[in-house]
Fold:
Amino acid sequence: MTQPSSVITDEMRAYIGKESGPVVVEVDKSACRMFARAVGYTDPVFYDEEEAKRRGYRNIPAPPGFLGHVVYNPARPEQRLDYLPPFKTPFTRILNGGTDIEYLDDICAGDVLTVTRKVVDIQERQGRLGPMLIVVSEFTYRRGEQVVAKFRGTLIQY
Amino acid sequence: MEQKVYFEDVQEGQEIPALTMHCDSQRLVMWAAASGDFYQIHYDKDFAQATGLPERIVHGALKHALLGRMLHEWVAPRGRVKRLAVQYRGMDMVNEDVICKGVVTKKYRQDGENIVELEVWTENRQGQKTTPGTAIVILPSREG
Structure:
């Protein structure tokens, strides 16, 4: 038996450090409420705009973990925020390996953000489920010029 | 809503109030809709099993969001969650409890902010930590 060769190609490596073009996401008011409801929040700040303003937010805040939705438009397929790697891999199955979100400002309903993505690391490992490809990406969220959040996501393909 | 916890009250080693969520299939479908993650391993049993999983699994990002809720409910209304970083080390299956916990590891003032760092994790009913991580929150001070 020979050792299987690396699945990490030069094409994949070429993506490391390259920043994608910006994708627009909207932080919708109903989406903030829906997210809060799915996570089980009872704090009225995530449901009631007046309460949010009394508490010093510009509008209903995005609950931790919610960074808006891509404006879905089938006519503009390039406007998608892909958590999958931007390159082809031999694997079809996916697991989420980790999430790291750092907030640099409040994100509130009504915010329109732009997101850029950068692959920062690609590794392969022999896991319990067979060979795995582990891709770490950094997504930078900006409101205008201001960086409001940094999202670091680890994706496992196997 | 009144502030329950101030920076002065916090001690290193202190446990924060835990949060438990029973993740049934309705919860996972609500999460799929709210997050926009429609990968079928989270709500289609046949699909999940065809990929080799024993059952539908709880979304990792839902566990991240539940830990975020635990932190929010601890620091609200005046505090803020500044950072939450977790790794999905173990799977949680549908119809199981996800138990969120946290312990204060460090507190300090920096650039006029009252910063508290925590070790956070989710565990299952067997006590296995499936989602270890770290968090940073900002708390208000009793001095205003």
